[in-house]
Design brief:
heterodimer; A: 516 residues; alpha/beta; Rossmann fold; six-stranded mixed beta sheet; 17 helices; 22 strands; B: 313 residues; ABC transporter involved in vitamin B12 uptake, BtuC; 70% helix
Chain lengths: 516, 313
């Protein structure tokens, strides 16, 4: 892997720049953070590692003044290195203390230029005109030192995700941040963009900046930080110098137990179950378009679609699930051409769907768990008789599925919205697998799930593969695609390109639109 | 007389600009509110309140410019009420706005009736007079069209330039536009989302009230019931027509003024053949057609209608 060398000892004076002392925060009965203490030194990259819901973002939101901690204090170094207590609960105080935060969801105004976004809040609102010349000069200096470049005069709405992120970082540095917090910065980037980001971070830390880097990706945490702090259930459960850590040990810290590795048996693939032939969809943007897409998924096979989000994955998923028909081209399921693109018809042809947004499209939150389990087959005689739902059978059936698929929650008569993300996903898996589909469309099946639940989803998908289903896996997580797929197809700008082999670097280049 | 002759007559264009003036104030006011992310349907009532308050202040001896100040403050007060309901409390902007319209209209009528219980026709004031600018006013065509308007029309033109400058060239303008696109961006930079939105609504409402004041202090010389007559609603449509740009807002207002002036003249020409209601309807039909064409591409401020609450992200 390219990038700066983090294994070398820190060329630093060990100056403390930030000290979180026993920060605690409760939301109702949930303890989000329990007496978490963390120190950060000058020029250091500290990874804050933890599963979803471990309390990483809450901790940083307290540091940045978005939340008021229930107890605990924060000390920050001033320009001369003297530590002062930080006024908590005020973003303005954090900004003035030199703390900059790049949120996972960018806080940029899309209707303003990159430059105006960077300047926002830095000038008195009573000024009669903006002082662009001095600002450009200062930004040019920052760009020179860090290598962060962005088209300053372009509207943010026209920028790519990577460029927007650089604008966010430039904004923080322009406001004289000496401590930069990056919340899951690589979640939206191609591997190459991520490498560039890490190079920029390397340059920034040489310049004296300190970085807290929130992530749940073990690979990049190991490659790009000096020290790793691990959070679990709101507590700090470990802290380790990166050079002493390996993937297995920090995964164990994160989860609290060894994570099982799903065995992927070699199975000979069967006949094609899904064939797309020259499918073209002309949507209003690249996000909704496909150009001359060809794809085949066989029985006993997982085909992974790798790509940065917004490159046509939604269009592909819409076609395969029947939400939209193509402008040109043909789709065959089990060698039968699909003539009518509507979801019930495709369901009947043997396609099971795990939708991207499980809360919005996967369940109806106001209906019960039992009802959600039968919602795709309301006309089935098992479920209704003469137009009346057979409540007894439906409830028994739900009990059984919840047991088999380990769906935990307040029970089968509770509203589905009360379930956690992982349990909603298990509910959807139960509903899909029960119909023994020929093809399973798994769109971002593990996004936002903790490691345990993600592992369970992966195990079920591989089980279905073994049973003879074809699986079309769409995921932005390249590691997941690499781990589960038999074949990988890269989607970029509405085009599908088969990857020659499972090589991370070349797939990364293809995701960025560069053909090798 | 044919249509062409109407279109090139100076009195027609003078009328177009006269009709456009209150709309320019109103559309600028609505534009500022919406740029900050809040729809202000109080506009129709704020017009009435401005018309009433300005006129009554002059009648009570405040002077014309004093009257405008009173109108602006009255509009600002109703704006503040709308702002408190929709910004920190985050209530429905539609419901609050319509409520403000009903409240402001009724309060204006109520004040009028209680102050002047025994009059059959309202007392008249001496309104703004056409500005006579030496040399320029004597120019052919342009002289009559532009240089014989009242000071309020010129104030409206000045406001277009001022609003454009503030929104596009000042840090305050950047902050207002940002708060209408992504309030989180403003909050993350330590600026007050509530402060910016409330301020924009108060300022925008003050401008709307000036549009109302034009009716009683320049176009006419007294307050009548029902004199606002849907001008506020037209402004709401014109903002979309203008794609939230002050320059286009001016254009839209003048176009509407031209349609309105045109239908009056056409009525006298062919009124015997076509019922007058058709002509009265024409400017509104034209604005609907213009909206259908333009609004399909309109880029709404992204955070319009979406309340934002501190500490929730």
């Amino acid at each position: 892997m390219e990038g700066p060398d983090f294994s070398a000892p820190l060329p630093m004076t060990n100056n403390l720049v930030l000290s979180l002392k026993a920060l605690s925060k409760r939301f109702g009965s949930v303890v989000a953070n329990d007496a978490v203490s963390i120190d950060l030194h000058q020029g250091e990259v500290l990874s804050l590692l933890g599963e979803n819901g471990a309390g990483k973002t809450t901790l940083m939101n307290m540091l940045f003044g978005h939340y008021m901690p229930d107890s605990g204090t924060v000390d920050v170094a001033d320009m001369d290195g003297n530590m002062h207590p930080l006024t908590l609960g005020h973003p303005q105080a954090a900004l003035e203390a030199g703390i900059g935060m790049v949120h996972q969801h960018f806080t940029l105004a899309e209707n303003l230029s990159a430059l105006d976004n960077i300047l926002l809040g830095s000038e008195s609102l009573l000024r009669w005109r903006q002082n662009h010349r001095a600002a450009r000069h200062k930004i040019a200096g920052i760009i020179e030192r860090t290598g962060l470049s962005a088209p300053l005069d372009e509207k943010v709405g026209n920028l790519s995700v990577g460029e927007r992120q650089r604008v966010e970082i430039l904004k923080a540095l322009y406001h004289d941040a000496r401590i930069l917090v990056l919340d899951e910065p690589t979640a939206v980037l191609t591997p190459q963009e991520a490498d560039t980001l890490f190079e920029n971070i390397g340059a920034m830390t040489k310049d004296g900046l300190s970085v807290i880097f929130i992530s749940h990706k073990l690979r990049e945490v190991l490659a790009f930080s000096h020290r790793i702090a691990v959070l679990r259930h709101g507590r700090k459960v470990g802290e380790i110098a990166t050079k002493d850590a390996d993937e297995k040990s920090i995964a164990r810290m994160m989860v609290g137990a060894d994570t099982p590795v799903n065995p992927r048996e070699d199975i000979a693939v069967g006949a094609p179950v899904l064939q797309l032939k020259s499918i073209t969809v002309s949507g209003d943007s690249a996000r909704n378009s496909l150009q001359d897409a060809n794809l085949t998924v066989h029985a006993n096979e997982v085909v992974g679609i790798a790509g940065v989000s917004g490159n046509g994955q939604s269009a592909l998923a819409s076609i395969v699930s029947g939400l939209a028909g193509p402008d040109h081209g043909e789709m065959l399921v089990d060698d039968v051409a699909i003539t009518r693109f509507d979801p019930p018809n495709l369901l009947k042809s043997g396609i099971g769907r795990i939708p991207e947004d499980r809360h919005h499209d996967g369940v109806i939150g106001a209906m019960t768990v039992a009802e959600n389990l039968i919602i795709e087959r309301l006309n089935d005689p098992d479920v209704q008789k003469n137009g009346f739902l057979r409540q007894e059978i439906i409830r028994e059936h739900a009990q059984e599925l919840c047991r088999d698929y380990d769906v935990r929650g307040p029970g089968i008569d509770a509203q589905a919205r009360l379930l956690s993300g992982g349990n909603i996903q298990k509910l959807i898996l139960a509903r899909v697998f029960e119909c023994s589909p020929r093809l399973i469309l798994a769109n971002q099946p593990t996004r936002g799930l903790d490691l345990g639940a993600a592992n369970e989803v992966a195990r079920r998908l591989l089980e279905a593969r073994k049973r003879g289903a074809g699986i079309l896996l769409i995921s932005e997580d390249l590691d997941e695609v690499l781990a589960l797929s038999d074949r990988i197809v890269v989607i970029h700008d509405g085009q599908l390109i088969a990857a020659k082999d499972k090589d991370r670097a070349s797939i990364g280049l293809m995701m960025a639109g560069e053909h090798t | 007389m044919d249509i062409l002759q109407i279109l090139i007559s100076d009195s027609f264009w003078a009328a177009a600009f006269r009709i456009a003036t209150p709309l320019i104030f109103g559309v600028l006011g609505a534009l500022i509110c919406e740029k900050a992310g809040v729809l202000n349907l109080g506009i129709e009532g704020i017009f009435a309140a401005g018309a009433m308050a300005g006129w009554m202040a002059v009648w009570l001896g405040a002077g014309l410019w004093g009257g405008l100040l009173v109108a602006a403050l009255t509009g600002g007060a109703f704006g503040l009420l709308h702002a408190i309901l929709t910004v920190p409390l985050g209530l429905s902007q539609h419901v609050s706005g319509l409520g403000i319209t009903m409240l402001a209209t009724s309060l204006s009528y109520f004040t009028y009736r209680t102050t002047l219980p025994n009059v059959s026709s309202p007392p008249r004031i001496v309104p703004f007079q056409p500005l006579d600018i030496p040399v320029l006013s004597d120019l052919p065509f342009v002289g009559l069209v532009l240089f014989q308007q009242t000071a309020m029309t010129w104030l409206a033109f000045f406001m277009v330039a001022l609003v454009w400058w503030v929104l596009n060239r000042t840090p305050l303008g950047m902050a207002i536009r940002a708060v209408g696109d992504n309030p989180d961006a403003v909050d993350a930079q330590g600026l007050s989302v509530y402060g910016l939105r409330i301020g924009a609504i108060v300022a925008g409402s003050a401008l709307m009230a000036l549009g109302g004041a034009f009716l009683t202090m320049s176009a006419f010389d007294a307050f009548f019931f029902g004199m606002v007559n849907g001008r506020g609603w037209i402004c709401i449509a014109l903002v979309i027509f203008a794609s939230w740009r002050p320059g286009k807002a001016l254009l839209g207002a003048v176009l509407f003024g031209a349609f309105d002036a045109f239908q009056v003249r056409l009525q006298t020409e062919v009124g015997a053949l076509v019922p007058s209601q058709v002509f009265l309807m024409a400017p509104y039909v034209m604005s609907i057609i213009a909206l259908v064409i333009v609004a399909r591409r309109a880029e709404y401020p992204r955070a319009l209608l979406t309340p934002w609450f501190k500490g929730q992200r």
